[in-house]
Every structure is written in structure tokens, then in C-alpha cells.
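Project standup — Tuesday

K.O.: blocked on the structure for the chain from last sprint. Re-posting the sequence here as requested.
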Amino acid sequence: MSVLDICRLPAWDLADENCLLAMWWVPTQPLEALKVVEAWGFRLMTMKGFTWIKCGSRQPDKLVMGMGHMTRANSEDCLFAVKGKLPTRINAGIVQSFTAPRLEHSRKPDVVREKLVQLLGDVSRIELFARQSSHGFDVWGNQCEDPAVQLHPGYALDIGGLTNAFSNAPLSPTDNQGQERAA
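H.V.: unblocked you, prediction finished:
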């Protein structure tokens, strides 16, 4: 899926008028991550909401070593962006970085979902590009069972009975500065 295709996914149909976006991004493509944030109608808070330092699954005391341009990568970052007003933070003691075993391709550790719940409490949540279903989260992804929605460039289709997730936003909503989006 191209960055343009991701930008056209109607996350604005799923997002509450006041919500937090926690989005994993590829370190070699920070500008592309910012384009997605803007296209979805959010504004950036920080590029480092969470930092996952990867260790081995069989040797948890040993950090993994991945690919890299200048240095070998052993972490992934999750940015935070906001739409409307920032939701109330429930727990001010959540630490940014954590160490957890590297998982199969693109799968993220459960501790991230747990940290988000601790941070924001009992709010509606959806995980896009999910690899598995998660308790307390609606999910969408081609590798998870029973997704709650089908996302297509420009529109979302409610297939899982989500009743309050859609705001009937127009196909070309305005961006977070009130300007009409380009089609």
C-alpha cells in the first residue's frame, strides 16, 4: 500500500472529534508519516510517543540488531498526534520507552495497547493495520479475524456493528486548519 493510499484511508470517519492518534512510523520515512497525520486531520504532538527497544525472544537480556543506514536499528517509534482537544490523561506515570521481544513482521507488543489504556482510560479505540484482535480495541487489518470496519480509499464501511464510530464525514473533509482537502 502506498503512502498516498494510506493518506486516503478515511481515518477521519473513525476518529472522534477529540482524540489521540498513536501511529507507528518507519524511521527512514518521517516526512511520509507527517503527511499521513495531516491527511487524516490530526496535528503532531511528538514523533516519540512510545519507543519500543527490541530484545530477543529467547534472550531477553540481548538487544536485537536490525538493518540501518548509519547505525543498526533496534527500536521502533510511535508518534502521537491529536484531533480537536487532547483527551484527558488518566495516568501521568506512563514511561515513553520500553523493552519487549521482537515479534513477527509488523506485529506490535501487547504492552503498547495496555499503556494506551492506562494513559487514556476507557475510551473507544480502533487499531488500523492490526495483526490480531485485541480486547477493548476494534480492529481493521487484512491479517486479523473479524475486523470491525472495512476501509477503502475515501470511505469506510461499517461491517462489525459499530454504531457511534462514524460521523458521516464528507468524502473530502477539511484538514485540521479548516481548509478543504484536495481530492
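K.O.: great, moving the ticket to review. The first strand starts at residue 19 and ends at 25. The radius of gyration is 17 Å.
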